[in-house]
Each structure stands twice: as C-alpha cells, then as structure tokens.
Amino acid sequence: MKRVAVLQGGISAEREVSLSTGAQVTAALSEAGFDVVPITVGLDLQLLITALTPPPDVVFNALHGRFGEDGTIQGVLDWLGIPYTHSGVRASALAMDKIAAKAAFAAAGLPVARHVLIAVESLADGDPMPRPFVVKPPNQGSSVGVAIVHEGDNRLAEITAGWGFGPLALVEEFIPGRELTVGVMGGEPLAVTEIRPVDGFYDYEAKYAPGGSRHVIPAPLHPTAYAEAMEIAAAAHSALGCRGASRADFRYDDTRGEPGRLVLLEINTQPGLTPTSLLPEQAAHRGMSFPALCTWMVEAASCRV
Fold this sequence. Notes:
12 strands
C-alpha cells in the first residue's frame, strides 16, 4: 500500500484554506485505499523534516500561498528526494510571482492586462493608471489583499496604510465583464467555468464561504470564446512548465457583445480542493470523482522537475 503524507496548514495567509484542502484530500485518499499521514506544517522546518523521516512514497502538497506553492517547500522535497504532487520549483516560483508570470505569458503570445509594479507608498500620491484599476500583492493567492479602485473612490490612503504585503504593489487595468476559470490536468484543459459572486467581486470570502459564489459549468459563452479560453489555459500551463493540475483565471469582457476579449490574469499551480473549489467541480463535470482526482495527482507525483 502506497504511503502518502499530506502537507497542510503552513505559514501563509491561506493557512485555513490549506487545512480545508488537506482534510478533504486525506479523506479522499483514505477512501481510495492509500495509507495516509496528514502533517500539519508550521514554522519549524526541522519538525517537518522529522515528520517526513522515514520518507513516504509520495507527498501530497496541500499547502497554499507563500512557502507552500512558491517553490520553497518544493525545493525542500526535491532536496529530500521525495516525489510530490503539483508543479516543481521553477513553475511554482514563476506562477506565484505575478510579474514574472505575466512576462512569461506575454512572451508566449498570451493576452495579459496592462499593469505596472509600484512602490506601495506611492499609491497615496495619486493614480498610477486611469481608473478603474486593481491593486493586488505581487506574490499572494486567493485574492488576498486585492482591491478594485473605481471612479470617486477615495481609499488610496487607506489601502496604503493597511498594506501588509511588502514594499511593492501590482496595479492592473480593471477588465469589465465576467470571471472565468479553466482547470488543466496533465496539459489537457477540462472545462470553462463562469464564476458569479453573490456580492461584489470574486474575493477571498466569495471563494471559500458556502454560497459566496455560483459556478456555472460549462460557462455559457460564444463557442469561439470557449475554445479560446481552453487553448489559452493549456498554453499558460505549458509556458510556465507546470505539471499535474493547474487552474487558469480569466476576465472576459463581453460588454460590447460576443465573442469578447479574454484576458489571462494568473495561473494557480495548486488549485484549492475545498468543498467550494473549482477544479474538483470541473473534474466531476468530466466524469472524475474526487477520490479519483486525488489518486491521479498522487500517481502523477514527481520530484526534481
């Protein structure tokens, strides 16, 4: 019986999301017949290494955010020679660094939003681009720290004063229209989902609170736009050198009719596997149960890639 260690928790702003993913994965892999050992990760790296001794057959990396999906823990597991799920060091680091990821996407000919990287304190001095625009940390996930600044909005000083994500901020043009996402498994796009937040935009609460958003799968799009979203997601997965599963997030501007303008926002190299997450829904849409999805991830695990 294959022994699988599930890493969960971690030290990022997404710790609670990771714990939820870890609990779901542990139950699914146990149901699938694996010998599963959940490991809750904290600040002490030596404790983690001890918990991984003797090494399991595979590590299921259920960590989210910094130190979990930015290449850090991947490097540790490569050093230890333990196969792990999801992307390796390079792809993980690129995807978490939004500026580097956008550069890779643009080099591959993929559509990205106009953007600028600024010193966050300069935000209080005035608009870095025409409104509306989006302010986000350059190296966080799950919409942590994201703010949309519209006409008449006077929150720039407030955003600056409450910023806790380092000295830099990423500012992007705001793309009107719809929120879309496409899961990719082993290089193959699964489906396009339209995300309809109940209130406001697709922020942390809308992502993880039960009832925070409605997911429409397959997304009701013009066939040309649907096919293009699938193609771009697979190309983004390839452009960063991802492996296993990823999820590409888009804005789709159909305000002047369809087919509209697709803009690739980012790629998530470790999509959430919580009860409200999108990748399991897309896998189910393709006929794959959650235990089968987690089993596929374990079987696809590797290291030093």
